[in-house]
Amino acid sequence: QSALTQPASVSGSPGQSITISCTGTGSNIGYYNLVSWYQQHPGEAPKLIIFEVTKRPSGVSDRFSGSKSGNTASLTISGLQAEDEADYYCCSYAPISTLVFGGGTKLTVL
Amino acid sequence: QVQLVQSGAEVKKPGTSVKVSCKASGYTFTNYYIHWVRQAPGQGLEWMGWINPNSGGTNYAQKFQGRVLMTTDTSINTAYMQLSGLTSDDTAIFYCAREWELRGPDSWGQGTLVSVSS
């Protein structure tokens, strides 16, 4: 499976909203409602922030939201804060119970 | 609390193998799959495969088939990932992570840096 496609970078000012897209195919994102998103700060392990396209784990801010349309999933962060600056990765299930990650998006808070 | 604690950094020669451990605590080990994910320096996340500690069943990414072996020891709640035929391209941080019911890996180990150099 080829990696899912994400923009290399996005940026926004504090308080603004940004959206990160994640494009796959009809055999991964388009087929399964099993998209998750991860936040990774430098030197740290990834942290799950969205699972099953739209759900947030306990303790994750409601400023993070997920959606999906066709073969593209999206992560929206509202009310940007300095601590949101990190790398973000999407992930989807794919055929034969495999996983595929996106290439990652670097979020800069201006 | 849930913890996945991985073994320490390794330095390996090309052509050799490495075995990374991942000790779980704070939950029922056999109720969650364990995934292994690789991250090369400055690069993104790459899924390597999963193991079901309850059955021992595995599913490896095609890229690593024939070169990776994932096992568990349920008596000590520990998962292992062995990668053979190492090359410099395998220099990376390797993470273990648990998953329940296809929700995506939700808790991650701290990562293990494996450096491959002659």
Task: Write up what this structure looks like.
The complex is a heterodimer of chains A (110) and B (118). Chain A is mostly beta strands and 110 residues long. Chain A is built from no helices and nine strands. Chain A has strands at 9-12, 18-23, 35-40, 47-50, 64-69, 72-77, 86-94, 98-101, 105-109. In chain A, a hairpin with a 3-residue loop joins strand 7 (86-94) and strand 8 (98-101). Chain A is globular, with a radius of gyration of 13 Å. The relative contact order of chain A is 0.34. Chain B has 118 residues and is an all-beta fold. Chain B has strands spanning 3-6, 10-12, 18-25, 33-39, 45-51, 58-60, 68-73, 78-83, 92-99, 107-108, 112-116. The chains are: A mainly beta (110), B mainly beta (118). The interface between A and B is medium-sized, with 25 and 21 residues.
Question: Which terms summarize this structure?
Answer:
heterodimer; A: 110 residues; mainly beta; six-stranded mixed sheet; three-stranded antiparallel sheet; 9 strands; 0% helix; globular; B: 118 residues; four-stranded antiparallel sheet
